[in-house]
Task: structure prediction
Amino acid sequence: MTVTAVVLAGGLATRMGGEKPLLTLRGRTLLEHALALAVPLAQQVLVAGGRRDLPLPPGVALVPDLPGMQQRGPLSGILAGLSAASHDRVLCLSCDMPWLSPDLLACLLAALDRHDCAYCTLPGSPGEPLPVALRREPALARVRESLRAGNNRVLPLWRELKARVLAGPELAAFGDPALLLRNLNTPQELASAEQAD
Result:
């Protein structure tokens, strides 16, 4: 199975002070945490940096937002990643979710054997936009159409694809779902994560 991983690191992050990918958690930047998850799972690793110029290790490529699609939220980064992907299976994850499980991400990718999309949902939630595993062609067409129509929301697109949703005990097998899918949005959340066991 060949995979392209896309790490989303281009958001404005106004609540975090604007440079979320470069903030540190336990001695590594949030971007480094995300790359540590992505690199073992993928033959191609891309960082959707929006307008940022980020320091990246060898073998990891930076992809900017496409012209006319800048700063449209995560969907613009997903479009940039899908457009640059060399493989049919594409794993998209955010740089601010350091507790994701590699086994969970592998499970999402394996679901693409029978589906065009795989994502998670928490109790009482309509679904989590990230992480997501996508088949490149069906997803690229829908993401492009949505952005051209002025729709920037991620989750409705996943529901339009032939999707596999991980929830309940199946998701909990990978750890505490609320922690696995938690993202860091404020300095207070980052400080709390630094102190957590």
In short: The chain has one domain: 3-195. The domain at 3-195 is CATH 3.90.550.10 (Spore Coat Polysaccharide Biosynthesis Protein SpsA; Chain A).
